[in-house]
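Exam prep: given the inputs below (a chain plus magnesium ion), describe the expected output before reading on.
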Amino acid sequence: MLLYPDFCCKNIKEVTVERLEKNNIKGIILDVDNTLIDLKHNLLEGAEEWCKELKEHNIKFCILSNSNNKEKIIKVAKALDVPYIYFGTKPLKRGFKRAQKKLNIEFENLAIIGDQIFTDVIGGNRCNMYTILVEPIKDRKIFINKIKRKIEHKILEKYNKNKKEG
Ligand SMILES: [Mg+2]
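Solution:
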């Protein structure tokens, strides 16, 4: 199912080496807005340490953001010392393929971590990646997002129900 993530958690710090190794993940494609930074562009506390620890276990990273704010993305990429792609056109496969080529890791060994089903999860699933949905650090209070969140909430409710039943 394209809409369902393989794993849901509060934030990136709950993505452990153990989970990645169990699922044969060698690289992570990272969303930026609401996954790594809040609306004021503050990096999630502990993000650098989390990234460093996974790198020590040979996990590779690439940022893939739909944002066209180059400076913002570069700032995050520098803080984590990882390559980046901005204006990533998720959920289209194009951006994911660019990230995959940068990392030189097969899709089946890649995970995507993001806060949105409609860009991060759908795009990742279309590329047969391991998809991880995190709770948005802080939500935009604009109308369209409210609607999207409501739909996402419904999908997740159904997902959790299915998981319990199956
Ligand atoms: Mg996001």
